[in-house]
Prior knowledge:
single chain; 17% strand; alpha/beta; four-stranded antiparallel β-sheet; 12 strands; eight-stranded mixed β-sheet
Amino acid sequence: TTLFRSSYVINMWPIFILVGVAAVSAEPRYFHSEKVFRATPQNEEHVAFLASLTSAVEVDFWAPESVALVRPGMNVDFRVEAHKAYKVDRLLAESRMPYTILVENLQTLLDNQHDSNIRAVHSYEKYNDFDTIVAWTSTMASQNPTLVSRLQIGTSYENRPLYLLKVGKSAPNKKAIFIDCGFHAREWISPAFCQWFVKEAVNTYGTNAQMTSLLNNLDFYVLPVVNVDGYAYTWSNNRMWRKTRSKNAGTTCIGTDPNRNFNAGWCSTGASNRPCDDTYCGSSPESEKETKALASFIRSNLSTIKGYITIHSYSQMLLFPYSYTYTLTKDHNELNNIAKGAVTQLTSLYGTRYTYGSGAATIYPAAGGSDDWAYDQGVKYSFTFELRDTGRYGFVLPESQIKPTDRKSTR
């Protein structure tokens, strides 16, 4: 439709940028003296060394998401438990591969993450737990009935509700954009982004001409947390948890990577068929109740949903299909121009540098992602937005960074 011509979508980017034992234990997981390393392999020998190292020492990959995705020249960030850190440090030094220690003591970083002085139950400038976000969705709908309504699109494996907010002025025959946050449980800045986006939409309607026009002509479906069980688990047990919390047959390993669980080249590349891995693709496409609910809602509303944006962290990237193949989409040039325009705007206005491009070519191939799936369903304008930062804090971005991250992006 004319609403989604390239120039219009580029102009909409101020909206888009707004915004083990431990796995099953009832005791909180602590990370005292655990380190996060960054290694930069220069050649295939270094890549093979990292593969050998991680087969001997269990590590938690932060970026990329598994050793299978490591390529020469890329920064490889991974967490190592305290009692293994010295050995890993020594082996990396012996390898003559460039490396540094990004985080000397992860628990200290976690202890300092909640650096907001705000004491309100809910705040846009601090991280909110799942129950607080649920209450917030109810409040937003009840206090803004002409702009916001709340829908439950499903329930999780552990029977938590999946609430979606529909934001927009009521009118017939409106097109829509779907925005989701919180696919990976430990990416806390992502749900914070979705909450900030809704706040900005509601608070600036009627005073900001662009936002008023957008909400008069479009609906925004906002799902603040996709992986609700995993997100809750990061608050109660293990801050570094990534996957869902479903049980897997024949193993004690818990969960599936929800962003490897869609029927888009499912489990063909950049995903694992081993349930213990963080990139486990699941027993089948949409095996997870959460991904099934999201996909079912989009399928039921394909006649109106014309844009899809999924919010992740970290690495400051703007990606578009495809990730499951190097083949370019038929809309590649248009999507690339939109991404280029958005990234150029971010850099010129705020000095914030983002990398952009198709997923497979820009970072690495990864099958089963929601943006590829949405595109293949006919949602042409499908993007993945990787928020701050580039590794200084990684998944542990302090609360003091929430407002700068989102406020700069909304102007």
